[in-house]
Specification:
Blueprint: H1 12-17, E1 25-28, E2 32-36, E3 46-50, H2 63-84, E4 88-92, E5 108-113, H3 129-140
Antiparallel strand pairs: 1-2, 2-3, 3-5, 4-5
Helix pairs in contact: 2-3
Bound molecules: adenosine monophosphate.
Amino acid sequence: MSLDGTYDAGNIFAKILRGEAPSVRVFEDEHVMAFMDVFPQAKGHVLVIPKHSTARNFLEEAPEIIGPLMLGVQRVARAVRAALKPDGLTISQFNGAPAGQTVYHLHFHIIPRWEGVPLGRHAEGMADMDELKDLAEQISAMIA
Ligand code: AMP
């Protein structure tokens, strides 16, 4: 998938938004939804997506969505920091398959990082669901 294309309403994040696919929810407001990445690159890897959007990537997103979305990303990132006390946080977003994008509904990754722990492989190795739920509760409790 390149940077060009049309939004596929059957993508997994659209299904999560419609309640047709499960997710381990961290946070939700009028504008954004945050849930645990099921193939985490580190403990506490969270995804933040716009709820009212058909943008496949950042370049396509409407200006009025970008503001609330980025505020949501910052809010969740602060909660991840407060809950898990990482040494650092990687916040990333991929556009197009050559850049590493695999799901074509705009999303941001929030990945806690610890000194000396390398980033895990992207979109590989499914997490333990009980552990994900526990992490989601810890992060959710720190949303300010
Ligand atoms: P990207 O490669 O930037 O498009 O990121 C897509 C992310 O979605 C990857 O990190 C996947 O691990 C993650 N992912 C794929 N399916 C699901 C799902 N059903 N629930 C949560 N995360 C998912």
